[in-house]
Amino acid sequence: MSREDATTGGQRTGDGDPKMLYETVSAEMQRVLVGNEGAVEHLMVGLLTQGHILLEGVPGVAKTTLANLFAQVSGLDYSRVQMTPDILPADITGTYVYREHTGEFELQRGPVFSNVVVADEINRATPKTQSALLEAMQERSVTIRGETLSLPEPFMVIATQNPIEMEGTFELPEAQRDRFQLKLTIDLPDRDVERELANRFDDDPELGPGRVTQVVDKQAVLAAREAVKDVHVASPVVEYILDIVEETRTHPDISHGSSPRATLAFLNSAKARATIHGREYVIPDDIKTLAEPILAHRLVLNTEADLSDVSPADVVADILQNVEPSGAGAEELSLD
């Protein structure tokens, strides 16, 4: 099978149908990946909505492998930057290098010029270097010595961070966390999943990203993005989103709630989730499922909540309990 004519099981997967795209990518990734099906779904949501993803988890839970697998099976260019305190902005964006044999400066593009950029342990980079990603994430372009250069399409940043080793790290500021459409927590596997992992690697010690095949192409991804734009969001669902976001601004445990960027993240992510589940309209369950990945990293809790060991996830769960969606049924939501 050629990389350009990617198929799986004899079925063409380049027609841009989001549901088929997701199922094909997920099935191929599961040849190596054990568990984390929810993370694959959210990565696809990010890809279909030009959203960036923050992965948080202890070392060894396959955060980087997850991103690498996703890029390979989707036919996307992939680059990885190991963030450390001595990484400079130019190490990410690129710079002009003087070539003595030509007597001219030549642009040397940095790893940000890829479809999928993995910023490993992003909180180990200095704030100055972290900020080098801001323009790329928001504008999908970078400026090098006054020249603005567009980044490839599709483009997404997948950043990872370790929540337990804080020495020598620089916490992401609120402005940068807000740039990530979704934050996913990669938990330790349960016993059954870990047994399956052990068995697979016992049978094939070399199992890894090199064992998967490209099963879709960039054109299919771009076509699927266009299909997401046509998904219908009924008025009751929009009101439900607005009610949830407004609650983050008045909740007693929150000192700073979510901005309109969170509202748009709900809107776009819910459309993508609807399509990969075979629907042409959004339902309240899409919003509920996405609430924690969209909101938890954006909320700034007050001192009293911090001292009481209240987590952002706890607050999101409380908000969902307090805010009820409209009683409209699926048929009404699809026709509104």
TrEMBL record:
Pfam families, alphabetized: AAA_3 (PF07726), AAA_lid_2 (PF17863)
Keywords carried by this UniProt record: ATP-binding, Nucleotide-binding
MF GO annotations: ATP binding
Sequence ranges assigned to domain AAA+ ATPase in this UniProt record: 49-190
SUPFAM superfamilies for the chain: P-loop containing nucleoside triphosphate hydrolases
Protein name, UniProt field: AAA family ATPase
